[in-house]
């Protein structure tokens, strides 16, 4: 979306609002002139009412001409309404949209998210032609990120590793730890490559749980240094750089899927409570989804949940290692 906007409006100054963890992904993007970091997390300077007033003052002081908000939260709607920006475009379905936006657009439900964002530009901005833009993701990272990936691989004596992302913010979107343990063993047997469990610092505990199961079934892989938990050992740009140097990625339906596609890495996404029709499946050429299509209870929500609503969790428990390995074979052809 950012690249398409820049192509259509090359002389416009573009500022993007991001959460702190996303800053590294856009700070080197040539299409972005400036970033506003909205730090609303625990201990963040924009948390609570005082923090909200602080970010509102910051935005109002910059005297923007136009706001594009392809986001649906009430918090974003409140910020848009209070921003003082004279032209504001957002979704009809967004929180407080009637007050927040001067122009409200319908959010298509049957398109990949990338297509939705390009349509947002075309429908919202007169003269914009983004519908034919490439849907290839792209990320620009700096030398520090490249060095992080290089140093990590050198320290582990790993060359073109296989990456596994076993976590997700939503518990029901996580495949089972014993399943991941079986998958790691199968991936190593197939490709004879070091396997790295990736994620944020907070994902480390979930990765360790997978390794505990692996220790029970294939202790030799851990003892010989063939599998490592590297969650939190790089920045987000560093993780992207690591993907550029890897052989394959298998991930739950979560952010690593999209970074893998951007890095042109063969990527398999594991879908349980969610389905590709929601718009967030990978659409890169060398990507595929592993899922149980025949389950009538899928999807059970837009983002997953803390527990299975039907208390059986079949969408993940019944998904076999063999099924995922067959999907891996598709993207590795």
If you had to describe this structure to a student in words, what would you say it looks like?
The chain is of the alpha/beta class. It has 2 domains: 2-124, Rossmann fold (3-Layer(aba) Sandwich), CATH 3.40.50; 143-331, Rossmann fold. Helices cover 39% and strands 13% of the residues. The strands form 3 sheets. Strands 8-7-6-9-10-11 form a 6-stranded parallel beta sheet, with helices on both faces. The chain has a 3-stranded parallel beta sheet with strand order 3-4-5. A two-stranded parallel ribbon has the order 1-2. Helix 12 links the parallel strand 9 and strand 10 (267-270). Helix 7 (143-156) crosses helix 11. The longest helix has 15 residues, at 48-62. The protein is globular and about 65 Å long. The mean pLDDT is 95.
Give a quick summary of the entry.
This protein is of the alpha/beta class.
List its traits:
333 residues; Rossmann fold; 2 domains; three-stranded parallel beta sheet; alpha/beta; six-stranded parallel beta sheet
């Amino acid at each position: 979306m950012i690249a398409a906007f820049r192509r259509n409006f090359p002389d416009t100054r573009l500022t993007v609002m991001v959460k702190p963890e996303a800053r590294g992904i856009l700070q080197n993007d040539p299409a972005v002139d400036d970033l506003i970091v909205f730090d609303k997390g625990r201990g963040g300077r924009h948390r609570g009412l005082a923090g909200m007033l602080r970010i509102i003052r910051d935005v109002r002081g910059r005297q923007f001409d136009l706001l594009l908000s392809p986001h649906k939260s009430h918090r974003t709607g409140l910020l848009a309404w209070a921003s003082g920006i004279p032209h504001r475009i957002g979704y009809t379905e967004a929180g407080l949209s009637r007050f927040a936006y001067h122009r409200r657009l319908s959010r298509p439900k049957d398109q990949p998210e990338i297509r939705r964002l390009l349509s947002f530009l075309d429908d919202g901005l007169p003269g914009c032609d983004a519908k034919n833009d490439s849907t290839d993701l792209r990320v620009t990272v700096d030398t520090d990120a490249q060095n992080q990936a290089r140093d990590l691989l050198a320290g582990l004596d790993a060359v073109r590793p296989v990456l596994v992302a076993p976590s997700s913010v939503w518990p029901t979107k996580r495949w089972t730890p014993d399943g991941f343990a079986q998958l790691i063993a199968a991936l190593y047997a197939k490709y004879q490559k070091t396997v790295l469990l990736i994620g944020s610092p907070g994902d480390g505990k979930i990765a360790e749980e997978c390794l505990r199961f692996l220790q029970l079934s294939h202790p030799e892989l851990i003892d010989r240094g063939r599998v490592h938990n590297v969650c939190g050992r790089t920045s987000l740009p560093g993780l992207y750089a690591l993907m550029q140097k890897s052989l394959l990625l298998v991930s739950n339906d979560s952010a690593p899927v999209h970074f893998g596609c951007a890095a042109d890495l063969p990527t398999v996404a594991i879908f349980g409570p969610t389905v590709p029709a929601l718009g967030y499946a990978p659409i890169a050429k060398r990507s595929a989804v592993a899922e149980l299509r025949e389950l009538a209870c899928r999807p059970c929500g837009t983002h997953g949940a803390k527990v299975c609503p039907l208390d059986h969790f079949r969408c993940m428990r019944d998904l076999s290692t063999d099924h995922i390995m067959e999907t891996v074979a598709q993207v590795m052809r």
